[in-house]
Amino acid sequence: MEKRVTFDNRLLPYLLLAPQLLVTIVFFFWPAGQALYQSLLLPDPFGLGARFVWFSNFEYLFNDRYYLQAFVTTAVFTFFVTLVSMTVALFFAVLADQVIKGAGVYKTLLIWPYAVAPAVAGVMWLFMFQPSIGVLAFYMKALGVNWNPVLDSTQAMTLVIAAAAWKQISYNFLFFLAGLQAIPKSLIEAAAIDGAGRWHRFRTIIFPLLSPTTFFLLVVNIVYAFFETFGVIHTMTAGGPGRSTTILVYKVFSDGFVGQDLGSSAAQSVILMVVVGLLTIIQFRFIERRVHY
Amino acid sequence: MATISIKNITKSYGKTEVIHGVSLDVADGEFIVIVGPSGCGKSTLLRMVAGLERITGGTIEIGGRVVNDLEPRERDIAMVFQNYALYPHMSVFDNMAYGLKIANKSKDEIRERVGKAARMLQLEPYLERKPRALSGGQRQRVAMGRALVRDPAVFLFDEPLSNLDAKLRVQMRLEIKEMQRSVETTALYVTHDQVEAMTLADRLVVMNGGVAEQIDTPMAVYDRPATRFVAGFIGSPAMNIMKGAASGREFTLEGGTTLPLGEAALSGEGRPVLFGVRPEHLRLVPDSEASIRLKVRAIETLGADTLAHGRFDGAGAEGGEFIARLPGKTKLAEGDLLPLAMDPGSIHLFDAESGKRI
Ligand SMILES: Nc1ncnc2c1ncn2[C@@H]1O[C@H](COP(=O)(O)OP(=O)(O)O)[C@@H](O)[C@H]1O
Ligand SMILES: [Mg+2]
């Protein structure tokens, strides 16, 4: 039996694909190509012309102390955003999984932050923790914390991590909850009869069975922290104080549009593209072998 | 090894009561089967013994100790689930060793006990496999092995065979019985399958609508069903049951036909009763000795037996559906009028209102 759709007109399939292809070409391949090309050019100081310089933009980058520092900053930022948002989400999901009454309300409330744009989330957190007018900053000062994220780089980092992680909790929560609900109740009951207490059941049964979800979320969260947190950084710290919250995507922006170093900015974009590519490959590889227990 | 004593247990979900006061005393080493139609509360009862459901009223004792407020792990029980509930990320060995590891047994002891159970259940070649690489019957064995290695006071089974095909079910049924006999552990076994129930049980608990209708040995339940429900549920094909009135030595059907009651005679006139006789207690006799004549409508040939379905002559417009189980060689044709007699002492009478045996 021929199950595939067959077309009489040889042009029709291509026509049907065209809109999708067009969107991909215009919004992905074309700018990506531009970035690739740009990364090999060195514009003159007045932006009137450009010289083809091969890989010297890249060479320059890898000798740039600030670029390497941005890598470290990104690693720290990504590590904590992923860790915090996943841990908190898992904790809430475990609680929600046990709720019988009012589970719907609980879930809906937990999903709301996902609808908030990163920049808005940033502004919200900024207000709450603004040293002079912020509600929470007020209480922190009352508790004797010397709170000043505008000057203190560790505090600034903590703040952007908190805001970025907060926004991602909903997403992780949904997936973790779905993952938890897919675990047959009888497994937990069997473990309870076998003598396992709550924590032991979580550690030896629930967590291992959640590992496909956890791995998927790990990749998604890394990608999020790497690429989608620009709004949070931009509204809250603008990369400061003293570059302490300048992550890689933010540096692309600040070097290119603020510093007007388009060649370097393009080279940084290319490096980021490679990173996304690698992450995507890891994820696809994994999804192919989804059941790994 | 332990006795179980269930005293007037009730269970409610919110305002709905689903178990209405069940009492049961189980002797040490006894194999009790709880049987009943789907939704009658068998699993709920078993899960209350296991500690997986809270007990609404009454008490449960295991080995003389009230366990109402104890966690499952404090009750010294092991349970086999319908879907086996094997840990999918662990090997067969680890599945069986899970409880022992938690109990802090030494490596050597764990290896010895798992090894022994694996030998008993012919699982030795599969110890390193994951559950998904096993057949249904093998998974079933692993689930039993997991219960076995812990050497608990009580085994609980919740329909452990209902996911297996018919042939495997018969085989595993025997294995479960043998295993329980050899370790002499008290067992509570839930099933909706009456054949499984009859063959496994030392004593049966026949449940219906959250009530234990009868608790007795399989033969006693078959010979003297305590209620109309039990009479219809145990036995295959089901007992023929007809409405009518009993007067002295006679039973008058709603359609007007009379049947002799023999030893089952009642005092009193025109008492509304249900009259029951099992299909296997009917014999083909010469026409002059017949007490019932069956108009055959359909025939099922099973080899050893032949089932004649029909209505009996003289039945009213409704009812009178009747099955007779006759020797396999009996020559029958649709439309025949079969003269039948009932074996003496095979008549069951139930009160028409309460359904209780008279
Ligand atoms: N968690 C629950 N909430 C409400 N009703 C339930 C729950 N679990 C079981 N019941 C009800 O209790 C009755 C008995 O269920 P169960 O013990 O599972 O039946 P069985 O095992 O005999 O098929 C059923 O009517 C079922 O609908
Ligand atoms: Mg059940």
TrEMBL record, chain A:
Keywords: Cell inner membrane, Cell membrane, Membrane, Transmembrane, Transmembrane helix, Transport. Part of the ABC transporter complex UgpBAEC involved in sn-glycerol-3-phosphate (G3P) import. Probably responsible for the translocation of the substrate across the membrane. The chain crosses the membrane at residues 12-32, 66-95, 116-139, 159-183, 204-227, 266-287. This is sn-glycerol-3-phosphate transport system permease protein UgpA. GO terms for biological process: transmembrane transport. The keyword Transport applies. It comes from Nitratireductor indicus C115. GO terms for cellular component: plasma membrane. Signal peptide: none annotated. PANTHER family: BLL4140 PROTEIN, SN-GLYCEROL-3-PHOSPHATE TRANSPORT SYSTEM PERMEASE PROTEIN UGPA. InterPro entries: MetI-like, MetI-like_sf, UgpAE/MalFG_permease. It comes from the Bacteria. It is found in: Cell inner membrane; Cell membrane. It is a multi-pass membrane protein. Belongs to the binding-protein-dependent transport system permease family. The keyword Transmembrane helix applies. Residues 71-283 form the ABC transmembrane type-1 domain. The complex is composed of two ATP-binding proteins (UgpC), two transmembrane proteins (UgpA and UgpE) and a solute-binding protein (UgpB).
UniProtKB/TrEMBL annotation, chain B:
GO terms for biological process: carbohydrate transport; glycerol-3-phosphate transmembrane transport; glycerophosphodiester transmembrane transport. It comes from the Bacteria. Pfam families: ABC_tran (PF00005), OB_MalK (PF17912). It is a peripheral membrane protein. GO terms for molecular function: ABC-type transporter activity; ATP binding; ATP hydrolysis activity. One of its GO terms (cellular component) is ATP-binding cassette (ABC) transporter complex, substrate-binding subunit-containing. The keyword Cell membrane applies. Its main location: membrane. InterPro entries: AAA+_ATPase, ABC_transporter-like_ATP-bd, ABC_transporter-like_CS, ABC_transpr_MalK-like, ABC_transpr_MalK/UgpC-like, Mo/tungstate-bd_C_term_dom, NA-bd_OB-fold, OB_MalK-like. It is found in: Cell inner membrane. SMART domains: AAA. This is Glycerol-3-phosphate transporter ATP-binding subunit.
